[in-house]
Amino acid sequence: MRNKQTLLRNLPAVDKLLQSAPFLDLAADIPHALQLEACQATVECLRREILGRPEAFTAADLDIDSVAQRAAEQARQLHRPNLRPVINATGTLLHTNLGRAPLSDAALQAVERVSRGYSNLEFDLDNGGRGHRYSHVEDLLCKLTGAEAATVVNNNAGAVLLALTALAKGREAIVSRGELVEIGGAFRIPEVMAAGGVQLREVGATNKTHLRDYRAAIGEQTGLLLKVHTSNYRIVGFSEAVPAADLVGLAAEHGLPVLEDLGSGMLIDLTEYGLPHEPTVAETVAAGVDLVTFSGDKLLGGPQAGLIVGRREAIDKIRRHPMARAMRIDKMTLAALEATLRPYLDRERALREIPVLRMLAESAGNLRRRCRKLAATLKKTCGGHVTVEILAEVSRVGGGALPLTELPGWALALSLPDGSVEALAARLRQGEPPLVGRIQNDQLLLNPRTVLPEEEPLLCRCLAAALNAPDH
Ligand SMILES: *Cc1c(COP(=O)(O)O)cnc(C)c1O
């Protein structure tokens, strides 16, 4: 008991800690409020540890220097940004939890150029009057898709909601039972429709819907025909869906519009890189679909955005809708989006410059070479601590796109003598920057497909730090 009291008395006071050498070093960088919080928390934590296990302490543990070091480390943690870069070694290209598409250099530069000062966001430089924010991407989107008009909102979920409500509020939208998609969390087609004041009219069966099913459902109440890309699942086997062109023909007989939610949407055909054939946005527009919506940050490889292209009249209805204002895209996103779209005017350039497309196109041979190089470096820096193998490993597109597609490649497989890769994975997540891989059969797999080449030295440093940590 006396020992406890003595230890507690020896705890440095908060104001002494704030005056100590480690804190004088931090003073210029870290706000005083965070320094104070860190000192208070550290002292409180030590107090509880002393009350719990006094025998674990010596007087030296409580000297001002060692307590100040601990508190300063905590202050640095408190000051670290919450949202920060992570190295994605999962091999999943559009990992929604890791921020989906990484942006191209051009997109990043555009954000910086446009948002550091002022811009012509809604200012017409020719006549000095008011301009339109959507004009910066509309022509590009029309060129790339063949559409008459285009607009953009915050994300594709918003685009679908807005398009549904602008075209069919108070009426019915006819959709196949095979396409009542749920896209992660709260985005479900039936619920989006309800939110937009549109009645759902389901037709067909889960596995098969025919044109005659749509025809039989058309009536007084019909507002539009909706087609939804089954992004994150596939109905395989005895199944059938109606092609967009056939729906367009039927809709035209009744003077109805067709809306297609393409989900990821692709501006260029990527079958040569092992992706299944999917209609591109241009093909969907050419089929006569009135409005096509797709995401900016899926396979397009840009910032989060919802792109809407189609007929001028339908796009005008969307733009004029009051809800459009609530979903309007900001200048940074718009800058990144324009810079992402421009290279698509030249397919080869898009494949070279847009990170998601580069990752998609990287050959298995190249991935294997990168694995060999990384393995050699790891052997030098982390030698005795870890066994490194190179395994065949597939990548997935992710982000709810192309669920059955597997991109063949290679990965590093790390195993530890004591088998505890969970602990290694946890240390890597806590590292700076955090590194995220995938655990499989007691091995930690690191897939270089989603690691930017310039991140490789950093990846090796992260591994060395985690493997050579003292508690390891
Ligand atoms: C991903 C997806 C959405 C949602 O798009 P966000 O840009 O994430 O809002 C909507 N519909 C389909 C079919 C999708 O695949």
Could you name the key traits of this structure?
4-stranded antiparallel β-sheet, PyrdxlP-dep_Trfase_major, 43% helix, 472 residues, binds pyridoxal-5'-phosphate, SelA_trans_N_dom, Aspartate Aminotransferase, domain 1, Aspartate Aminotransferase, domain 2, SelA_trans, 3 domains, L-seryl-tRNA(Sec) selenium transferase activity, 7-stranded mixed β-sheet, alpha/beta
Chain-wise SSE layout:
Layout: H1 2-10, H2 14-19, H3 21-26, H4 32-52, H5 64-79, E1 87-88, H6 105-116, H7 135-145, E2 149-153, H8 156-168, E3 172-176, E4 182-183, E5 187-188, H9 189-195, E6 199-203, H10 211-217, E7 222-228, H11 244-253, E8 258-261, H12 281-286, E9 291-295, E10 306-310, H13 312-320, H14 322-326, H15 331-341, H16 347-353, H17 355-361, H18 364-382, E11 387-395, E12 407-415, H19 421-430, E13 435-436, E14 438-440, E15 443-446, H20 456-467
Parallel strand pairs: 1-13, 3-6, 3-7, 7-8, 8-9
Antiparallel strand pairs: 2-10, 4-5, 9-10, 11-12, 12-15, 14-15
Helix pairs in contact: 4-5, 6-15, 7-15, 16-17, 18-20
The structure holds pyridoxal-5'-phosphate.
